[in-house]
Write a sequence for this structure.
């Protein structure tokens, strides 16, 4: 995580339910001393207005964002994901992002 430029100023945001990948990322971030913020999937999967998600992301200034499924979260990611944040996907793809 540190090799990817994550730090106290560039945290990790996790858009996922309670699954193994979320646990592993949270544990790794805590071990590396990198702040992380688990964000409820409702902000990206249920909501149609992504203002709250955008506000959270602006406050967190993440260097990376993990989403459990890129295809399901695509609209929310397009609306809220900063251009300089790395996108990490558990499944699926997101067009236009590496």
């Amino acid at each position: 995580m540190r090799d990817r430029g994550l730090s106290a100023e560039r945290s990790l945001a996790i858009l996922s339910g309670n699954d193994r990948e979320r646990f592993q990322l949270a544990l790794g971030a805590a071990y590396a001393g990198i702040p992380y913020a688990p964000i409820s999937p409702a902000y990206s999967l249920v909501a149609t207005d992504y203002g709250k998600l955008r506000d959270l992301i602006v406050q967190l200034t993440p260097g990376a964002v993990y989403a459990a499924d890129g295809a399901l979260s695509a609209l929310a990611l397009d609306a809220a994901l900063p251009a300089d944040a790395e996108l990490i996907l558990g499944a699926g793809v997101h067009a236009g992002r590496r």
